[in-house]
Design brief:
The protein is built from 15 helices and 18 strands. By secondary structure, it is of the alpha/beta class. Helix 2 packs across helix 3 (59-73). The longest helix has 20 residues, at 27-46.
Amino acid sequence: MDSRLQILSAAQMRAAEEALIDEGETVETLMERAGHGAADWVWRVAAGRSITVLCGPGNNGGDGYVIARSLQERGCHVDVIAPIDPKTEAAINARKLWGGQPVADASNSVLVDCLFGTGLGRPLGDDLEKLLRNLAISHHFRIAIDLPSGVDSDNGEMLNEGLPHYDLTIALGAWKFAHWLMPAMDRMGERRLVGIGVGIVREAAHLSAAPRLAPPARSAHKYTRGLLVIIAGEMPGAALLAAYAAQHGGAGYVKIFAGEGDESLAGPPDLVIDHGSLFELVRDHRIDAFLVGPGLGRTAEARSRLDWVLACDLPTVCDADALAMIEPTMLEGREWPIIATPHAGELETMANVFDAVGLDRQEQANELAEAIEGVLVAKGPDTLIAAAGMPLTIMPPATSWLSTAGTGDVLAGLIASRLATGASARKAAEQGCWLHAEAARRAGPAFAAGQLIDYIPDAYERFL
């Protein structure tokens, strides 16, 4: 794994810094490296404009003094505000090396927030909160160093209400969870990473990297590229959306199972709709994967279809209604993993059924992945992918225009299509999410789910 993609908890970050110190670094040399690296970004953004650096009492404040010194050496006008004197030895030394005198207030073009960074576990006091808000209002451009002050590094929660939004956040050493989790992620603007030499941390979470897909082999035919069966139910439109998406997701053959007696479901000529019996369908040894849940309903018949599909023990994506009905007993004896794709409400439902309550979202996703012995895609503005026995993966954020009806069915179809091609469950989940996000980016604003599907081939081409 690329160390630039790893995401560390506050404890992991402290351990990584200690490991560097054990190898001969000092807190001061790490602070110099981080501060000068951050100053490079501030200098570019400021473009000659005046700068205010807000320094706190800890090492994040020490980074601020290094930044101020580095910028002044480049000829920038810099004011430093230090409401609390530095408390750590490294921060005290950094202030001495800066050599300036802090001011009580300033109104420049660029604000650099070095008040508190990783490890803050309590809200800002009223005086500091007021100071930060007032400075944010009086500056045109706002930059957070490591993290915006008032953010919980490990879960992205805001420790104070109404904290400012930033235009740029410069992570130091490694990404933290808050950089990629809501609600903090929404406050950070653009994000950049400044390395300080941190190596690979075992069992660290990581940011998903764009996949490399491949065209079909010259000898390929529809069955070697993967046969996906989508189980329809009470609301066939959802199954159709998933099927249309899956046809563009790499699988060579996509079929919808509608069941006996339901002749109303119809699709385009290139989409096969099976109106036979489920018993006969699942005897087809050419099936590579199932998708069950979109539009399935929650009737006794729907539950029977879900139970039957899971009993077939083939790679399976469970989405939507399937997630409201799935139970631990349905997964007993399976060898192939399932991929579950819950949104926030479905995640809570699954947590109750699989006894993963009372946890934060990352822990919940990991626990549920272990419970289902598969992969869990916790969908949302921050999408987490947890796989049994593996570190957590976080997807880069996609456009908020995806928050419209039917886009979840499109995602389920894409993930299932990748699964049918033979990708591992975790890889299929990541690849499906990337295709979904890229298609949405290309679709522009205010699209419907059906329009999103039209952009999947262009999205696929990006990853070839």
